[in-house]
Amino acid sequence: MTGYRKQLTFCVLILFVLLCKSAQAEPTNGPLRICPDNPRYFADADVKAILLVGSHVWYNLVDMGAQDPPKPFDYEAYLDWMGKYDHNFMRMWAWEMVKWDTQGNNPKIRNNITEFHVYPHPWQRTGPGKALDGKPKFDLAKFEPEYFQRLTDRVDLARKRGIYVSVMLFEGWAMQRVEDGWKSHPFHPENNINGVNGDLNRDGKGLEVHELLVDAVTEIQKAYIRKVVDTVNRFDNVLYEISNENHPESTQWQYAMIRYIREYEKGKFTQHPIGMTFQFRGGANKDLFESPADWISPNPEGGYRDNPPANDGKKVIITDTDHLWGIGGNRAWVWKSVTRGLNPIFMDPYDGIVLGKRFDPNFEPIRHSMGYALGFAQRMDLNKCKPAATGYCLSNPGRQYLAYQPTAGDPVKLKLSSREYSFEWFDPGSGKTITSGKIRGDEKKETTFSNPV
Q1: Closest C-alpha among 95, 250, 67, 111 to residue 184
Q2: Quick one: 308 exposed, middle or buried, by C-beta within 10 A (0-12, 13-18, 19+)?
């Protein structure tokens, strides 16, 4: 987790035509498609490019808690909270284990309680016989109605609030990092009545369930994917994510699952974007860019943490603090990412039930800046905006510019066409416009905007 310094940082917005003010939360207008004019972004049903920003938490679909069963998560309060910051995107987390032991996490963010029960799960626990946790074994041929009804309800509630939802299908981090985590997985042979064993090499990890090595497992996964797609296909605010932070050897499995969803949705009313995210540990961004995914979330290589590269439009990039810090980040990262053509999202400890502090005020600058950035993006024509080759500037040349100056007191220099512009200096720290006015550009030389502080 990064430290925070008290300093002024500024974002300057120069607009030739000032578009409408930021819209209030309205139902989503999907389904999303890669924007044909600007493939750095997704476009809505009106082919208008949109910026995606938002906070996500591990238990916004399943409940997690020290008690068994865990206390139900107040999802509507979470949506209210997202609305307070003007966020429009979340990752909706899947969890494959019946328990999460957080001792595998950074000790700086762990709480006194480290073992958390997870509920509900995609499959029914019918028995006969007891699983390793003392409850009835899973029947992997029978889906749990409560799980999929909850998925339906929560995607729909988000839709009504104008929030796009990336439905996570699988989760791979815990199988690598949670000690004895395999013992709490439904595909452990002692946890199901179907004779399924995903631990082909018997190393006690079960990573093979995400490697196309066990045919019975792959068929169960495909049936589960079909059930998820059938459940949420009608919603226009859906995206898919194959897996959170799976191991590098899962690459071909993830590619196969992307293709499987795409082929299955061809016969459906709606088709949705599919994403592939950072592979832990040792994954390479190259595998993400070469994937058949519509969108990706990279790891820190290439500067995505401190000096993000400009997006060239080969993929929609949803850059996520989860894959860059775990829990961490800062305000500057948000603005650098936005002005480089990326969509920044935040892994939020939220109420601190599992990890981190309850509503940690250190992260308020990130939460607010994502909403501020969305407000500016809604005033711009993102279909025509590209990141500058140097510096932190997103521009529709000759019309609109959004520039970020991370150093307090330094000016911003822009090459503008010879016309009059309206401009604003905005302070992300206070959330206020501190000065505004008009200026005339000169295409023969750079126009300098003096920092007002």
Answers
A1: 95
A2: buried
Distance CA 404, CA 425 (A): 10
Q: Is the pLDDT of residue 401 over 50?
A: yes
| Residue whose pair of structure tokens reads 């509507």 in the numeric block | 76
Is the pLDDT higher at 420 or at 121? 121
Domain extent listing, the chain = 1-21+387-453, 26-378
Q: What is the pLDDT of residues 388-398, one digit of tens each?
A: 988 899 999 88
- Contact predicate 428/350, CB 8 Å: no
* pLDDT surpassing 80 at residue 381: yes
Closest CA to 53 of 380, 414, 423, 375: 375
CATH topology of domain 26-378: TIM Barrel (3.20.20)
Please tell me the distance from the alpha carbon of residue 122 to that of residue 140, in angstroms, as a whole number.
9
What's at 304, amino acid-wise?
Answer: Y
d(CA 208, CA 211): 5
Position 103 scores a pLDDT of: 76
Cα–Cα distance for residue pair 411/41, rounded to 1 Å: 29
Q: What gap in Å lies between CA 156 and CA 179, rounded to an integer?
A: 36
**Residue 110 CB contacts under 8 Å (≥ 6 apart), including other chains:** 102, 103, 355
Residue 72 has pLDDT above 70, yes or no: yes
- Residue 422 contacts residue 414 (beta carbons within 8 Å): no
- Indicate if the pLDDT at residue 7 is higher than 50: no
Amino acid at site 58:
W
Give the number of other Cβ atoms within 10 Å of residue 86's Cβ.
Answer: 22
